[in-house]
Write a structure and sequence with these properties.
The complex is a heterodimer of chains A (405) and B (76). Chain A has 405 residues and is α/β, with parallel strands linked by helices. Chain A has helices at 33-41, 59-62, 82-91, 129-133, 184-193, 226-238, 257-268, 352-370, 374-384, 392-395; strands spanning 18-26, 46-48, 67-70, 75-78, 97-104, 147-152, 167-171, 211-216, 223-225, 243-246, 272-276, 301-306, 329-332, 336-339, 346-349. Chain A is 24% helix and 19% strand. Chain A has a seven-stranded parallel β-sheet, sandwiched between helices. The two termini of chain A are 25 Å apart. The model of chain A is unreliable at 3-12 and 111-116 (pLDDT under 50). Chain B has a four-stranded antiparallel β-sheet. The model of chain B has no long low-confidence stretch (mean pLDDT 97). In chain B, β2 (28-33) and β3 form a beta hairpin. Chain B starts with a strand and ends in a 9-residue tail after the last strand. Chain B is 20% helix and 34% strand. The interface between A and B is medium-sized, with 40 and 29 residues.
Amino acid sequence: MIESDSSGSRSSRQEPETTGRFIVVFADSEPDPPAFLRSAAGLSNVADSRDFGRGRVDPAETRDADATVFATLGVAVVTPDPQQRGALRASSNQANVVSVSPELIHHVLSDTPGGDGSASFQDTAQFTWGLQAAGAAASPWTGNGIKVAVLDTGFDSTHPDFDDRQVTVESFVAGETAQDGHGHGTHCVGSSCGPRTPSEGPGYGVACEAEIFAGKVLSDSGSGSDGGIIAGIEWAVVNGCAVISMSLGADVQQVHPPYTVIGKRVLDQGSLIIAAAGNNADRRQHDFGFVGAPANSPFILAVGALDQQLDLAYFSSRTLPVRGGQADIAGPGYQVYSSWLMPDRYHTISGTSMATPHVAGVAALWAEATGYRGRELWSVLMQESHRLMAPSVDVGSGLVMAPQE
Amino acid sequence: MKLTVTVKETHRSAIDDVAGQLRSCGMNIDRVLGVLGMITGSAPENCRSALEAVEGVAAVDEELPYQLPPPGSDIQ
């Protein structure tokens, strides 16, 4: 492969600045790059990094060389005359050369890149703003074959948008069925796994073909405790859920030890817990809050909330400065439209509780698209998220993004 | 008080034995969670050090409470 050849010119802003030299990348199968350069391109004066010892090549000593080979990297910097350049170009088609590219001039990055501030999403007739922003509206992946657990206030099993869906429910709250008597759980099931093409209104669910496991770990009055939550996590893992969404938390500044062990053991078994960072900030009053438990555990992925401009929501909690206490990623969490208890059917609310199921749904799409589970699934969510100008202590790796074609 | 007991890695396969020992030390067990290696339940406060001393127990932690805002709240 040969890339554009604008040797030695300082070109327009769109064209990269080049030095006139070339970078040759050798295939792993090439045993002797210096010998190859001599024979294939006719370069006589070839410096070899191995001759310098300990890996440091002195630029002053290689200034007059036609080529300097960095053996450990399998890379050479070459200064060809026109005839040699032609020979190099021809050699780029050989199996032992990966690429021949013009050497670029690099500059210190003085200005912060990006951040044009132009992002502005809104609900349309087709999709909620959150599905658009996270790339779920356009994703060909649906979560088909992936089991997603939502541990919350249960689920309204009478909701017509889920008539054709496989939903398994279980209650871990003494004296209550899994039927949602609050609304929060039904809303979170909707954002993570609801429909993209409901019979009325915009699509609002990310993993619209995932298999749903709705565990009730918070009562109809919204309260719960570790015993029920941990039992719900066990139930989700036993049932093979790749993703466990937990829009719940306690505003405590300490890591709660059981969740450190649980998060790790869950990852070991190929599942991933995604939890809300918390709503204990009020940035309008310069109060940044802190990520609470269990999201502040090292092996639980903590989710902050963004608004339609991809700015941080004013209530979204900042990283707690302890191991594991970071906000890991961010999702749509402001004015989120999703399913609610019948007969209301739909409701629009805000919170890191709403951002969390968006991330959980996107995790299910990645699980389907890549086959990744556990730590690999965590990693791909981080790697593929859309970077934001906001501080990493607030948004982690940025806006969660769904896999595309 | 309500408790969560973390079972050591080395004793996860013997979690039922650990649960039996906790019971004999005064813990009222709600659930033995074999996949996670956790045991939940309750015990009088003065039993805590005895529970922590049971072989195979990594940690004994008091339960945290969790509370959502009411359904009508704009921020959840």
